[in-house]
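stuck on this one:
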Amino acid sequence: MRRHLIVGRFGSSDGADVPIANGEMSTQLEFVVAKRRLEHDIGSSLDDLSKVGVFPSEMGIDLLVLAAHVQAADTRISRSTESQDGWTREIRIVVPVSDPTRWNTAIPLLQRLLNFLTGDRWTLGFRPRPAGFENTVSDRPLQLIPAPFDCLSLFSGGLDSLIGAIDSLEQGKTPLLISHAGDGATSNAQNKLFGALEKNYPKQNLARLRIWMDFRNWGVPGVESEKTTRGRSFLFFATGVFAGTGLNRSFVLNVPENGLIALNVPLDPLRLGAFSTRTTHPFYIARWNELLGVLGISGRIENQYWNKTKGEMAADCKNQALLAKLAPKSLSCASPTKGRWLHLSTGHCGFCLPCLIRRAALLSIGDSTPYALPDLTAHELDTREAQGQQIRSFQYAIEKIRRKPNLAALYIHKPGPLSDESPARQAALADVYKRGLAELAKLLAGVRATPS
């Protein structure tokens, strides 16, 4: 087990001294290679936003630079070799920012937020950007007509984000969609859906920021990469806020996520840690809104679907015909490329956790998505294999709540604190958890999963 220090640098002239503690392994993360242009797709994102009249603030750029440090550390430091317990890493990052005084006031909150999100122990430090980089944003041009966007919305290529975009557009809004370019399947889904939305809503000035921030060509010497990516939503939220600061007014960043997966209650006693993500948990979103206040950023992050199941989101979508047409093009699978090991095409496996929730959600409105495992009832599934593991876990959770429905009010607290939520909202969260499991129960009726 080693403790890691990631030090951000703004070019070869950035020689600020960053002391290394005993037992720490220090690695540099370079942000400026040529002239003043920021790397890791930050400079390209600034260019793309300027084309649609959006000019992020220095604080917005700081946030995206911080997110790059988090993303690099989270994806390039192995949990299995760099932690004592196979999960919890100790990571310190030192970030060059435009206003260290303000950022230093946010350190306790940021550390709490990141520790909750990834399960690691984060230590943060901020220092001034080096001379010549005090300002990285060109002067905002005089805009006679402001950018048309009245909100921002995360757009992952999944079913929930598709519904969120359709609902916003049907309400007459003009959202700026925010995407992170992932693997080929994810990017393909995002591109197809965005193109279809442009075609169906030609008068609404639809636009998208698509950031590509990948650290496969950067790493910590002698350390393997990490596949769990529990910190990914920090990058997603940061990218949205980064763009929001360029609207030059208060903004809302919508995070479309059904209540069942936002809570992500462990399905069985073993599903903690690695199996329990917190990317859109209410506690996490509340800390983000607290952070924006501390940083003086006039924006807010909201999940308008926090009290709906995925099936309810689909059934209530404001353009059912378009959803039916585009839903098969959306991508929900946790690992869409795993089918190649089974000599199957890239796409939905049909048996991972998000695939099962998707299938249950689309039962009532029709589902034409091709799945690698098309019929869950065709034969008995082995719970020791991937095809049966998630199904058996869902069956276990469904049966517990069927026998004792009142346990839902207790179980919703297992993934994380709900201290920000009123008693009424906590009751609503318990109810959406029960309704979400009820959707799964319909899908899994007659499905047999046993340790063969």
